[in-house]
Amino acid sequence: MKTLLWICVVAVACVACGRQKAEAPAAPPPVVPVVDTLVQEGDSDTLFFSPVEENFFSGADGIFEEFLYEFAADTLLQMHRIHFPLPYINNKGKELLLGEQDWSSSNLLCLTDIYHTLFEHDAEMDAERDTAMAKVDLECVDMQTGIVRTFRFEKQEGCWYLLRVWESGVKSYKHRDFYAFYHRFVTDSLYQSRHVNDPMTFVTVDPEDDFNIIEANIDMEQWFAFHPLSPEQLMINVDYGVKATRRPNRKILTCKSLGGNFNTTSYFRRIDGEWMLTRFEDMSN
What we know:
The chain is 22% helix and 34% strand. The chain has one domain: Nuclear Transport Factor 2, Chain: A, CATH 3.10.450. The chain has 285 residues and is α+β, with helices and mostly antiparallel strands. The chain is globular, with a radius of gyration of 20 Å. The longest helix has 17 residues. The two termini are 30 Å apart. Strand 7 and strand 8 form a beta hairpin. The strands form 2 sheets. A 6-stranded mixed beta sheet has the order 2-1-6-5-4-9. Strands 3-10-11-12-7-8 form a 6-stranded mixed beta sheet. The N terminus is likely disordered. It contains 7 helices and 12 strands.
């Protein structure tokens, strides 16, 4: 049994070494502050992928993450899926109505290629694939400036539309405590080492067989050899309406790329009052 376990651990370590750091998501660019005029210099397009086909502008949408992929990729689609004038309330409580030109020149949607979703129970994760979902909030949490910018999307006649945007302080954010922990977790290696369970369960796809899953317990040294990079300043959280309990003992954090090639799930448990990473799944392509 010990020999078999050692083989699993070695296999995991080999997978780790084979993964290039370049595949990990880069740290997001600084957030461009939005002023009352909402006019910024430079190109405002947020293009990660090639423009979508014209026929995507009509017809029913599927799950939200597929729509978000296209919405972030193409500013022309954004013009079709935003209700103008768009209500926008800045962090000072001032309400503005944005026209198409205001949106195009503002860099208001500061998306990175990576987005997160927080859950507390495994069953809640089904919301990510629920085509019946009618309302989703996209939250851009800037830990450095202390501002949360929320984009409210609703499905109307089968299609997702952006209806309004508002800003608030991190202090009033419902996931404030956990994201404050997670921000320090990804930026402070010493702090991280104290909040990773040793040993920790690691799960990944067999590099020689996409239909086979490798699961093994790894130690701290192996964790730091291959753990993926995470955004340090800007956290993009997709809120499917899952209610957070007042003092949860478990958090499940999914981390995905808009293109779908990066996909990890981190399982945290509160042990002796401290959040600890107890399980990490890497299903990236």
